[in-house]
């Protein structure tokens, strides 16, 4: 299948052209998160011919994802597939000439620098600010450009970040928002159209950067509400960089901290627990020891035990998701009682 035919319409777009298409083919992108934003962005950059795409996501496909996460289907849910593996399979069928690497993992301070080491650009498609601040620190430390996105309800934002040149996420937000102060998918829901629009803007910014068409002077925080059709491009300005601990002092507090131990998952009434040391759990043995708590199912990727009102999903490396509460301390208690690790 000739690539000149595959990309012919894109090549005819003058700002990209044949030279830009060659640049895309030699580019390497790290995409963190494969929810609604990530699936759309991944689909578009793979279709555009970005040569290498690394996908990192900790989660598995669930029925509630299908309302907006366009790479997945009901068969993925039935098979309990990791999002990274399911996305890789779908995207390979879309464009087999793109090298797609799938990592079923949680991005945290212990691995973020490894994942971005050989990337030209990082795309944020995360659902929590804790991990975004880790991404922000790592990209600033290694001078890796990245594109921030977020969407909830009918509203979303996009902002490219060129470390040392344009404001970063700490410039924009200052510090980590206090728990409960920001709307989430759980409290405000989310519409598929806004996630697709925001991810499409992110993909466009990625194509501009990778083909040398992103002018730093034109970078803004772009905000859009699909319900009211209110569109804004906000000039954050560079003055904030002078007082930002990341931009002005090179302080990477979130990257240099301990690996994230608990994360409240957006829209899930669930908490993810991250062990300090990774392991390699034998699901067959563990399933026998915890069967008294409730029905147990497992496959090569995960073990799931239901003990109403809680459900624990355990991964090979010891990470776990406790559903049925958004309280970190209660989730740790349930995890300790049932799993005992």
Return the string of H and E elements.
Answer: HHHEHEHHEHEHEEHHHEEHEEHEEEEH
Structural class: alpha/beta
How many helices? Answer: 14
Quaternary status of these chains? single chain
Alpha carbon gap, first and last residue = 51 Å
Radius of gyration: 20 Å
User: Outline, from the CA principal axes?
Assistant: globular
Summed over residues and divided by their number, the pLDDT gives a mean of 90
The largest beta-sheet arranges its strands as 3-2-1-4-5-6-7-8
User: Which percent bin holds the helix content?
Assistant: 25-40%
User: How many individual β-strands?
Assistant: 14
Can you describe this structure?
- The chain has 341 residues and is an alpha/beta fold.
- An 8-stranded mixed beta sheet has the order 3-2-1-4-5-6-7-8, sandwiched between helices. Strands 9-10-14-13-12-11 form a 6-stranded antiparallel beta sheet, with helices on one face.
- The model has no long low-confidence stretch (mean pLDDT 90).
- It has helices spanning 3-6, 8-11, 17-25, 36-48, 74-78, 83-94, 112-116, 129-141, 169-173, 185-188, 192-210, 245-249, 283-289, 328-338, and strands spanning 28-32, 52-57, 99-104, 121-124, 146-152, 155-161, 221-225, 230-234, 262-265, 270-273, 296-298, 302-307, 310-315, 320-323.
- It is globular.
């Amino acid at each position: 299948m000739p690539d000149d035919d595959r990309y012919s319409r894109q090549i005819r777009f003058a700002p990209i052209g044949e030279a830009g298409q060659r640049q895309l083919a030699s580019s390497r992108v790290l995409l963190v998160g494969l929810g609604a934003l990530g699936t759309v962005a991944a689909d578009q950059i793979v279709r555009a011919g970005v040569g290498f795409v690394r996908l990192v996501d900790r989660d598995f496909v669930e029925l509630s994802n299908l309302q907006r996460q366009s790479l997945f289907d009901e068969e993925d849910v039935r098979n309990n597939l990791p999002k990274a593996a399911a996305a890789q399979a779908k995207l390979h069928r879309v464009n087999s000439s793109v090298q797609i690497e799938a990592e079923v993992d949680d991005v945290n301070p212990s691995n973020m620098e490894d994942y971005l080491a050989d990337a030209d650009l990082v795309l944020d498609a995360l659902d929590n600010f804790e991990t975004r601040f880790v991404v922000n620190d790592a990209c600033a430390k290694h001078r890796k450009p990245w594109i921030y996105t977020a969407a909830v309800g009918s509203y979303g934002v996009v902002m490219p970040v060129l470390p040392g040149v344009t404001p970063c996420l700490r410039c924009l937000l200052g510090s980590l928002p206090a728990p409960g102060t920001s709307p989430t998918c759980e409290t405000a829901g989310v519409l598929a159209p806004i996630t697709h629009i925001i991810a499409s803007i992110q993909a466009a910014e990625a194509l501009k950067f990778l083909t040398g068409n992103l002018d730093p002077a034109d970078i803004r925080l772009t905000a859009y509400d699909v319900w009211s059709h209110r569109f804004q491009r906000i000039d954050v300005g560079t003055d904030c960089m002078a007082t930002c601990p990341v931009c002005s002092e090179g302080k990477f507090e979130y990257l240099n901290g301990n690996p994230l131990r608990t994360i409240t998952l957006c829209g899930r009434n669930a908490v993810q627990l991250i062990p300090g040391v990774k392991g390699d759990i034998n699901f067959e043995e563990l399933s026998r020891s915890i069967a008294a708590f409730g029905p147990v199912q497992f496959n090569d990727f995960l073990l799931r035990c239901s003990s109403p009102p809680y459900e624990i999903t355990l991964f090979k490396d010891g990470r776990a998701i406790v559903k049925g509460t958004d309280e970190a301390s209660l989730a740790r208690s349930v995890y300790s009682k049932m799993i005992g690790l």
